[in-house]
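queue> pop job 88
queue> type: inverse folding (structure -> sequence)
queue> payload:
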């Protein structure tokens, strides 16, 4: 909603806070009323994609119009993110190698069950709920078995040669098993979390490379064009659907904020105040 408001009220001057709040309120009400409309769904997804591009480039919406990336800044950011990605990959690798059977099995069965659910249902569109459920079921069943398998291997290895002499003879086998049940879940969680962060960084490399490429048409130019098109779409939708909810909605001007208590003159009489627009509102709006 905030992104849609910025795109709709894309003006040179800064809007008063009361006007900004009123636009937000109307956009939320309009989205709630028309969220099933194909135009709303399409522009919502495009706004999310636009916000993701801003996040990957490290820009804010108001910076798009004048942002310029120097070669030094782009190159330093690229090198920093490549280094960070390499460190995250090293941290993710142990958990990824140890628990790849769980990841592979959960992905395979969840996609298989999702296809079956979609084939047997006339109301499901993507089946994300089925996919998530089966990932939890498969991982919840296989992960403890895998932890137990690795714990048993460590126990036998400790009994055989104390893990090639790295474990002191005074360490008991039961403590190795207990440590395994603590360390292995931690490695699994670390692999998942670092993998998520690493994937976000990996996706951010492409826009930076485009900024460096002499063959690119210009990432920022495309972003400005994308923003201009989104602004046009949002304004068109608001001006088309807005008058149905708000009769005072006008394409030529922004909606005026409703009268607040702080806007009332201190010299107004009590009778005038009771007859004013502020007290003629519905109770929930006046509050």
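queue> result:
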């Amino acid at each position: 909603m905030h992104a849609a408001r910025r795109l709709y009220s894309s003006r040179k001057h800064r809007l008063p806070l009361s006007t900004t709040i009123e636009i937000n309120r109307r956009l939320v009400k309009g989205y709630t009323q028309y969220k099933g409309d194909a135009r709303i769904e399409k522009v919502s997804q495009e706004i999310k994609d636009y916000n993701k591009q801003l996040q990957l480039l490290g820009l804010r919406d108001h910076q798009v119009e004048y942002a310029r990336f120097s070669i030094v800044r782009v190159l330093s950011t690229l090198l920093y993110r490549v280094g960070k990605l390499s460190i995250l990959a090293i941290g993710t690798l142990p958990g990824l190698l140890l628990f790849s059977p769980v990841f592979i099995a959960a992905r395979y069965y969840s996609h298989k069950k999702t296809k079956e659910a979609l084939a047997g249902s006339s109301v499901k569109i993507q089946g994300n709920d089925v996919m998530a459920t089966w990932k939890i079921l498969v991982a919840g069943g296989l992960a403890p078995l895998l932890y137990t398998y690795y714990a048993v291997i460590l126990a036998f290895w400790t009994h055989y040669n104390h893990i090639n002499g790295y474990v002191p003879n005074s360490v008991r086998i039961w403590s190795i098993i207990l440590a395994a049940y603590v360390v292995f879940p931690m490695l699994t969680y670390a692999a998942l979390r670092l993998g998520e962060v690493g994937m976000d960084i990996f996706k951010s490399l492409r826009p930076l490379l485009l900024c460096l490429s002499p063959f690119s048409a210009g990432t920022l130019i495309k972003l400005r064009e994308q923003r201009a098109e989104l602004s046009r779409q949002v304004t068109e939708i608001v001006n088309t659907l807005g008058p149905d909810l708000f009769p005072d909605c006008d394409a030529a001007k922004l909606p005026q904020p409703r009268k607040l208590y702080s806007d009332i003159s201190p010299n107004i009489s009590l009778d005038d105040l009771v007859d004013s627009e502020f007290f003629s509102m519905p109770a929930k709006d006046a509050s």
